[in-house]
Amino acid sequence: MKKIVLIFTFFITSLLYSNELQTVYSYQNALYKAKQENKLVMVMMSYHGCPVCDYMKDIVFERPNVLEYLNQHFLVVIKDIEKDYYPQRFSAIDSPTFFFIDPMTLHDLIPKKVGGFRPEQFLSILHEATGEAEQNSAISPQDNNGTIAPCPHNAPCHEKKKVHL
């Protein structure tokens, strides 16, 4: 009986863990782990009170197909422009700004992406960064600007502002 409870607990824990975005706090640790796990690194520059950033974290990253693809192919680093330390190359004026890095070469895989994106468009961007062809995609990831205008850092968005699609 104890074995069944233990197995059931492990199964539930693994399901819960697999349903959340796996992030790494340190960029350097993300590079190290990405090399070990044969993954890429995505850096999201944001700040507290940015409704577009909250939309990306709470809506887009939570979509099962986006979440699964991110966790399978990327180590994600989310940095606060105002509070965290980060490499100068990730300086961003607008938020959110996304960088996609090859941990072996430290080069950008694609140009940085700025603003918020609908889940399907963001998934298309992730496919572009990995170099994998996306099945049944009519969405072009080529546009560098998001479908939701970014929050300019020098004029922070108000927390009450809502993001509508």
What does this 3D model show about the protein?
This protein is of the alpha+beta class and 165 residues long. The protein is built from 5 helices and 6 strands. It has a 4-stranded mixed beta sheet. It has a two-stranded antiparallel ribbon with strand order 3-6. α4 runs parallel beside α5 (119-130). Mean pLDDT is 81; it is low at 5-17 and 158-165.
Number of DSSP strand runs: 6
Largest sheet: 4 strands, mixed
Q: What structural class do helix, strand and pairing data support?
A: alpha+beta
Order of helices and strands: HHEHHEEEEHE
Number of domains as seen in the coordinates: 1
Report the span from N to C terminus: 50 Å
Envelope shape: globular
Question: What strand line-up does the widest sheet have?
Answer: 2-1-4-5
Low-confidence stretches: 5-17, 158-165
Strand content: 15-25%
How many alpha or pi helices? 5
Task: Give the CATH class.
Answer: Alpha Beta
Rounded to an integer in angstroms, the radius of gyration calculated over CA atoms is 17 Å
Which topology does CATH recognise?
Glutaredoxin
Topology:
Layout: H1 2-18, H2 27-37, E1 40-46, H3 51-60, H4 64-73, E2 74-80, E3 94-95, E4 97-101, E5 113-114, H5 119-130, E6 151-152
Parallel strand pairs: 1-2
Antiparallel strand pairs: 1-4, 3-6, 4-5
Helix pairs in contact: 4-5
